[in-house]
Specification:
309 residues, alpha/beta, Rossmann fold, Elongation Factor Tu (Ef-tu), domain 3, 2 domains, six-stranded parallel sheet
């Protein structure tokens, strides 16, 4: 997958089949769009293109009401997931107040057609774009009558009669329903971050931990508690447990993980890990003594080791 950060580098893409959107989570509904994008690109001997924006448009246009908006993916995580989805080209555009003034006509005719030379444009159900969200499927369809491209709208997607969206997935994670969120996503919810030494207290009682550094302050952290996780780091996969502590003194939650099959002599500090969340095991507990903490961690580990994942 090639990554572009300007519209000026797109002129050599062959028969582009393009879609636009934030694609936070790269969830089940998003994957339906990407699969169709890739299929149509192959059918016209072309290449699939997704145009997305950073930061999230709501945080630029409505900074007060969106200041608490948390995103399922950091930009790094989104890139990982889109590459796994088989996308050919990802265009990441810096979303500013100036760019927000771009009209739907300027966006389609001036960028998608004049610069990208789009062959097919795909939009999700009820998708709007351009200044004041004035552009939609009907607008694009009317343009096809006078311009050399076609347009297709992907129907709304649902899972067990529940509409899949980034909003409903975020709520599931904030409620601790990580398995439900994974079903919406059609993959495991992930956190990617650099590792550093964890709490000394845990190491003293035989449960050395690694702290996960959250790179972006907009990254959504699930409800506090203990989770069964797997982690990929430095070419290896580990099973383990992860604790999200929200009642600590720091402003942001503390994210600490203990890996079961990790040789502590092999240093992962400073490495980047991708952590997949499999199941929430319990709520946060405030334990007063090292003895009670060790007993609880041994119980957590035993229960997680019984899981097949």
């Amino acid at each position: 997958m090639q990554i572009h950060r300007s519209f000026d580098t797109l002129s050599n893409i062959k028969n582009p089949v393009v879609t636009t959107g934030t694609f936070d989570g790269v969830h089940f509904g998003h994957k339906v769009i990407i699969d169709r994008l890739n299929y149509l690109a192959k059918s016209v001997q072309g290449e699939s293109v997704l145009i997305t924006f950073h930061p999230h448009p709501r945080r630029v246009l409505y900074p007060e009401t969106a200041k608490d908006l948390k995103l399922i993916n950091s930009q790094k995580e989104k890139i990982i997931l889109l590459e796994k989805a088989g996308l050919d080209h990802l265009v990441i555009i810096d979303f500013t107040k100036e760019f927000a003034e771009t009209t739907s006509n300027e966006f389609v005719e001036g960028i998608l057609l004049a610069k990208l030379h789009a062959k097919i444009i795909i939009v999700g159900f009820n998708h709007h774009f351009g200044h004041n969200r004035e552009g939609d499927y009907s607008y694009l369809y009317d343009l096809t009558k006078t311009h050399d491209f076609t347009v297709e709208e992907i129907p709304e997607q649902d899972l067990e009669n529940e509409t899949v969206s980034s909003t409903i997935t975020r709520k599931a994670l904030l409620d601790g329903r990580v398995q439900r969120a994974n079903a919406y996503l059609d993959h495991f919810f992930i956190i990617t971050g650099e590792l550093k030494s964890g709490k000394a207290k845990c190491k003293e009682i035989g449960f050395p931990t690694l702290e996960v550094i959250i790179e972006e302050d907009v990254k959504l952290i699930p409800l506090g508690g203990v989770y069964a996780i797997s982690a990929e780091c430095d070419g290896n996969r580990y099973r383990g447990m992860l604790n999200i502590k929200t009642y600590c003194d720091e402003k942001e939650p503390s994210v600490q993980m203990h890996l079961f099959d990790y040789d502590s002599n092999y240093n992962l500090r400073g490495k980047i890990a991708t952590i997949a969340f499999h199941k929430r095991m319990r709520n946060e507990l405030q334990l007063d003594t090292s003895g009670s903490l060790k007993d609880q961690l041994e119980k957590d580990k035993s229960e997680i080791e019984e899981l097949i994942y």
